[in-house]
Amino acid sequence: MNLPGIASLEDAEANSPVFDISQPRSMVETGLSEPLLTDLLCKHLYDAGSLDTGRLMSRMGLAGPVLEELLGLLRKDSQVEVLGQAAGGGGLRYGLTERGRASARDALARSGYIGPAPYPVERYRELLKAQTVHHGSITAGQMHQAFRGVVFHNGLLDQLGAALNSGRAIMIYGPAGTGKTYISSKLIRLFDENIWVPHAIAINEAIIEIFDPQVHRLAATDSAGLPSLRLDQGSDRRLLRCKRPILITGGELSMDQLDIRYDPIARQYQAPLQLKAGNGLFIIDDLGRQAMPPAQLLNRWIVPMEERKDYLNLGGGRHCELPFDVILVFSTNLNPLQLADEAFLRRIGYKLHFDHLTREEYAQIWRQEVEKLGLPYDPLLLRYVIEGLHQPEKVPLLPCHPRDLLGMALDRQRYLGKSAQLTPDELQWAWQNYFVRLQDTEQGEPS
């Protein structure tokens, strides 16, 4: 796959596609306007007081020739002056004149962004398409390797693999505690390539921050274990090498987080969540628990799901079209028919039901957990939990129960200073503390 300015390479270690993004060597090659770049340079000098060329290159993510061009323009306009040689051979040191400081204040009044130069939105569209998360197919072997040791109910793993290959949105539903969130969060194991993520993008003169350290994991590190600013020789420093992102949001999700947001105090634009998850996974957990009606949230995705494009609003009647390149996963404890009508559900390619476990599946998870905790496996203790605790109170077998019950029993042992093998009494104690006990006998089983 070859696109303008993007040369396809092969990562020998990860055996996955990566892209060598050429470092711009002139102001024209940045794809940005002269006013945007000169404003940004003035803001950096205003923020720091004075900077040498090396620190300017680091802060703005631009090569020396581009900065020399910009500094020449600003010096010609009497906005920047040379303050002398920097200590330690860092090149010339620059500062703002009074005229330059006035320009910087005007620039900050329009935009509070002070960071690396943004990536132009036209090239970002190409980058999203070139790094698509739908670049290949997932095999049964890859699925079983990625989830080795994870117990699935009734062939659900292979259903999930086929769903991922479809490129369509996925809905997973079922009772709480059946592993929906856990399995969803592990899907990123199947997409372990490195991608390029811009610090920010420019849509005309608006700068929208994309890189989010809470979402993006840096792939390149220097010898000190810190993120490398250089990345590859000749690569565009406005981009960071990251693992494919996975973004999980739940009941706290609001509609404004799905569009470009402007902070009037900081005077900065923030990218919507689906754009931060670009080229990765976007999981909406606890669907139906958000403040907005489920239909409103689901309707937000009709156009992106069908057209693979997202139309974002910048305010003031301005809109921007960007590729919608994410694997979109909805997860809910509710009946999907309570959330949307059948016409909408047909637009979601796969609906996967996570159900209660069989006795054999529960036993597999129990054995894994006791081994993980370094405890001896006692089949009689497991039998007591199933037949003496679950069955009398008609509590379904869920994947979360072995870990939680064993952990609580060990909590009690540590509190009492014990280290002996777990007993039925200790698991009975954990059981009593694990479930909410309702006084109203008409409520039925514990919850």
Describe the structure.
With 447 residues, this protein is α/β, with parallel strands linked by helices. A five-stranded mixed sheet has the order 6-9-10-14-13. Strands 12-15-18-7-19 form a five-stranded parallel sheet. Helix content is 37%, strand content 20%. The chain folds into three domains: 33-116, Winged helix-like DNA-binding domain superfamily/Winged helix DNA-binding domain (Arc Repressor Mutant, subunit A, Orthogonal Bundle), CATH 1.10.10; 140-353, P-loop containing nucleotide triphosphate hydrolases (Rossmann fold, 3-Layer(aba) Sandwich), CATH 3.40.50; 359-443, Helicase, Ruva Protein, domain 3 (Orthogonal Bundle), CATH 1.10.8. The protein has 17 helices and 19 strands. The protein has helices spanning 34-48, 53-60, 64-76, 98-110, 121-130, 140-146, 156-166, 180-185, 273-276, 294-299, 302-307, 336-339, 342-347, 359-372, 379-393, 400-416, 424-434; strands at residues 6-11, 16-21, 50-52, 80-85, 92-96, 119-120, 170-173, 194-198, 200-203, 206-209, 239-243, 246-249, 261-263, 268-270, 280-284, 309-315, 318-323, 326-332, 350-353. Residues 1-18, 222-232 and 439-443 have low confidence and may be disordered.
